[in-house]
């Protein structure tokens, strides 16, 4: 499921990025991808039983949310 959209960066980048993007455009793209991953992992968490490691998804979600924060800070600096 994830490899079909969220983590298929090679295909997405080839279709989306031309190489002439501004830093702001690149960061906006990255921010969207990070937000998509948060949504994906939150949804996955609902399907994973405690016995199979649901608690580990909280760590992944927190890390992805940290990425959102970092990228957002860089975007704010760019104006």
What features would you describe in this structure?
The chain has 79 residues and is mainly alpha-helical. The protein has one domain. Helix 2 runs antiparallel to helix 3. The longest helix is centred in the middle third of the chain and has 25 residues. The N and C termini lie far apart (35 Å). This is Rubrerythrin. It comes from Candidatus Auribacter fodinae. InterPro entries: Ferritin-like (IPR012347), Ferritin-like_SF (IPR009078).
For the structure shown, list the relevant keywords.
3 helices; elongated; single chain; mainly alpha; 0% strand; 79 residues
Describe the protein's topology.
Elements (H helix, E strand, L loop, with lengths): L8 H8 L6 H25 L6 H25 L1
């Amino acid at each position: 499921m994830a490899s079909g959209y969220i983590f298929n960066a090679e295909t997405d980048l080839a279709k989306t990025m031309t190489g002439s993007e501004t830093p702001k455009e690149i960061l906006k793209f990255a921010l969207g991808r990070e937000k998509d991953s948060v949504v994906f992992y939150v949804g996955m968490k609902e399907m994973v039983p405690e016995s199979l490691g649901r608690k580990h998804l909280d760590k992944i979600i927190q890390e992805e949310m940290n990425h959102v924060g970092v990228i957002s800070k860089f975007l704010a600096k760019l104006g």
